[in-house]
Amino acid sequence: MGEHAQTPGGEVLERTKSAVKVPALFKVILHNDDYTTMAFVVDVLETVFLKPPAEAYRLMLRVHVEGQAICGLYPHEIAETKVAAVHARARAQAFPLRASLEPD
């Protein structure tokens, strides 16, 4: 039908396109500390952020060397859930690992 449609009376009706609003994305950032093991950080990156092992290891090293690393970009609600999951897993293992989110 294209952009226009005709009614039985011959009138042309324009189709209006509704704009789909793309949600704002937020960075989820892991922060370095002196107690959380590297193996635990890799495990968090693989399980919470679904990173493949090589990427998880690379991100863990960035956290360790640079003090923080961006783990992904997500809509706000998903980013909050990821941060909460990191904190829950860290707390369960008695690690002080912290995550935060900030607008992209």
The N- and C-terminal alpha carbons lie at a distance of 39 Å
Compute the CA-based radius of gyration.
Answer: 22 Å
Low-confidence stretches: none
Shape: elongated
CATH architecture: 2-Layer Sandwich
CATH H-level superfamily title: Ribosomal protein L7/L12, C-terminal domain/Adaptor protein ClpS
What is the number of independent domains?
A: 1
Helix-strand string: EEEHHEHE
Estimate the mean pLDDT confidence: 91
Spatial ordering of strands, largest sheet: 4-3-5
The class by helix and strand makeup works out as alpha+beta
CATH topological fold name? Ribosomal Protein L30, Chain: A
Helix content percent band:
25-40%
Instruction: Characterize the main sheet.
Output: 3 strands, antiparallel
Q: Report the sheet-strand fraction.
A: 25-35%
CATH first level: which class?
Alpha Beta
Count of β-strands? 5
If you had to describe this structure to a student in words, what would you say it looks like?
- The chain has one domain (25-103): Ribosomal Protein L30, Chain: A, CATH 3.30.1390.
- It is elongated, with a radius of gyration of 22 Å.
- It is built from three helices and five strands.
- The strands form two sheets. It has a three-stranded antiparallel β-sheet with strand order 4-3-5.
- A hairpin with a 5-residue loop joins strand 1 and strand 2 (12-14).
- Helix 1 packs across helix 2 (53-66).
- The two termini are 39 Å apart.
- The chain has helices at residues 38-47, 53-66, 76-92; strands at residues 4-6, 12-14, 25-31, 68-75, 98-103.
- It has 104 residues and is an alpha+beta fold.
